[in-house]
Amino acid sequence: MVECICINDSNRPVEVPARKWVKKGNKYNVIFTLTVMPQKVLAFHLAEINLDESCKPYEYFLANRFAFTQEGIRQLMQLIADCEDTEFSLEELMEQTQLAEL
Predict the structure, then answer these.
(1) CA 40, CA 42: separation in Å to the nearest integer?
(2) What angle (nearest 5°) sits at the alpha carbon of residue 29, between those of residues 61 and 37?
(3) pLDDT tens digits for 4-32?
(4) CA 64 → CA 53, 86, 91, distances in Å?
(5) pLDDT attached to residue 95
(6) How many domains does the chain have?
(7) What would the DSSP string read from start to end of 30-54?
(8) 17-54 burial string, b = 16+ CB within 10 Å, else e?
(9) Which phi and psi angles does 83 have, rounded to 5°?
């Protein structure tokens, strides 16, 4: 798990109820990462929120909604490597996330 903080809770899809949506300023834990297609952007599954069948087609939260500490970025790089074959460079990761004090 990698701790992060939500920095963007805007544009909640109507398919996702408010109780299953992230809230700006709240802390979450990333437990799985993947690259969503066709956008080819990093997305997360969070320990605290399960986007189930009722939220389809939404299953994951985009990485650009979250910020990480420097240590969190290192942990996230390892989690990405553990979860998928795709490798993100640190530069690509920083384009899709931000640093923050948690």
Answers:
(1) 7
(2) 25
(3) 999 999 999 999 999 999 999 999 999 99
(4) 23, 18, 14
(5) 74
(6) 1
(7) EEEEEEETTTTEEEEEESS----GG
(8) eeebbbeeeeebebebbebeeeeeebbbbbeebebeee
(9) -90, -25
Q: What is the pLDDT of residues 55-85, one digit of tens each?
A: 999 999 999 999 999 999 999 988 888 876 5
Residue-wise pLDDT for 29-53, tens only, equals 999 998 888 788 899 999 999 999 9
CB 66 within 8 A of CB 36: no
3-state secondary structure of 92: helix
DSSP-derived secondary structure letter, 76? H
Domain coverage including residue 49: 2-99
DSSP structure class, residue 97: S
Using CA atoms, how far apart are residues 87 and 92, in angstroms rounded to an integer? 10
Q: Helical H runs in the chain?
A: 70-83, 90-96
Q: Which of 68, 28, 15, 60 is nearest to 41 (CA)?
A: 60
Q: Dig out the tokens for 20 from the structure.
A: 């299953």
